[in-house]
């Protein structure tokens, strides 16, 4: 089922035709579905390659940013990240940009891990990314790179839309109070930095029990770092606490990050309710974690 109204139909035949016409050196390699997210569909190509295709033309701009900037960022980061090997061109069968990248082995974090180490390693990656000189970068400014206030109307609409869907399983009133409180905080004084903006567990890879790679830079942008810390609410408390301790974030930054987590989670539930149940489950879990860890004072 399509996730968006303007979605392109992408199947193995489409991908193979792109390879035959543009990358004949890889055209005969085995091709198999490799999952996808809200913005892209992926196919594994042979043992060592991955084809990444935006779900629509309107969602292709971030891929162009990845193609330009990931090769420049990779040498400065402590974990593996995807690096495009080929920048695909639109065609008659697929009217958007696409990429071939090196396959990165690993699995999303789960189960019996040293979650505290993962939290520390994740912040180490974030710190390194934020420390990279933004140089003369001109990239799309995403809403998650700015302030909370411009998102207030959308956040309240998303929370309202969640109410009939989640019933009494999530304390929406509490989440709205936390959102409102964050809006009263002073504006961030942080400098603008490089941001991943979507460091949720499905975009992290673990090998040998340790965090080894960060993937899906579709939200790569420059801006204020508050929202960068929001996905730690998707992690177990041990990882979240270790991240907090390693980062040394002040209370206001942490509250703004939590507010971003609320907005992003609440937005995903109604939008993907009928089309992407797994993502809805992620969003619900995030909001439940925030609500259960917060109390009315």
Main beta sheet strand tally, sense and closure: 5 strands, antiparallel
Percent range for β-strand residues: 5-15%
- How far do the termini sit from each other? 44 Å
CATH topology of the largest domain: Aminoglycoside 3'-phosphotransferase, Chain: A, domain 2
**Secondary-structure class:** alpha+beta
Keywords: Kinase, Transferase
Domain Aminoglycoside phosphotransferase: 32-260
Pfam family, one: APH
GO molecular function: kinase activity
Can you give me a brief rundown of this structure?
The protein has 297 residues and is an alpha+beta fold. It has eight helices and nine strands.
Can you lay out the helices and strands and say which pair or pack?
Elements: H1 12-22, E1 31-36, E2 40-45, E3 49-54, H2 61-73, E4 84-88, E5 98-102, H3 115-131, H4 152-166, H5 172-183, E6 193-195, E7 204-207, E8 210-214, E9 221-223, H6 237-247, H7 251-272, H8 277-293
Helix pairs in contact: 3-6, 4-5, 4-7, 5-7, 7-8
Keywords: Kinase, Transferase
GO molecular function: kinase activity
InterPro entries: AGP_Transferase, Aminoglycoside_PTrfase, Kinase-like_dom_sf
């Amino acid at each position: 089922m399509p996730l968006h109204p303007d979605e392109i139909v992408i199947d193995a035949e489409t991908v193979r035709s792109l390879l035959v016409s543009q990358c004949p050196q890889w055209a005969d390699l085995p091709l198999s579905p490799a999952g996808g997210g809200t913005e892209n569909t992926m196919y594994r190509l042979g043992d060592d390659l991955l084809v990444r295709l935006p779900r629509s033309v309107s969602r292709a701009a971030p891929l162009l940013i990845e193609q330009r900037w990931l090769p420049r960022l990779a040498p400065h980061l402590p974990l593996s990240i995807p690096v495009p090997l080929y920048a695909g061109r639109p065609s008659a069968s697929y009217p958007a940009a696409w990429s071939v990248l090196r396959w990165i082995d690993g699995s999303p974090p789960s189960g019996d891990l040293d979650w505290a180490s993962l939290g520390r390693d994740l912040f180490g990656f974030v710190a390194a990314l934020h420390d990279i000189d933004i140089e003369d970068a001109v990239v799309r400014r995403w809403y998650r790179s700015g302030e909370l206030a411009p998102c207030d109307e959308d956040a309240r609409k998303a929370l309202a839309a969640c109410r009939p869907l989640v019933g009494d399983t999530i304390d929406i009133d509490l989440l709205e109070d936390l959102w409102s409180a964050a809006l009263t905080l002073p504006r961030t004084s942080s400098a603008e930095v490089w941001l991943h903006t979507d460091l949720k567990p499905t975009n992290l890879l673990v090998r040998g029990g340790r965090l080894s790679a960060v993937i899906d830079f579709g939200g790569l942008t420059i801006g204020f770092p508050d929202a960068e810390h929001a996905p730690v609410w998707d992690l177990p408390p041990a990882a979240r606490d270790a991240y907090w301790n390693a980062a040394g974030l002040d209370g206001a930054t942490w509250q703004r990050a939590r507010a971003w987590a609320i907005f992003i989670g609440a937005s995903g539930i109604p939008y993907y309710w009928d089309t992407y149940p797994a993502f809805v489950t992620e969003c619900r879990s995030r909001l439940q974690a925030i609500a259960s860890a917060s109390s009315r004072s």
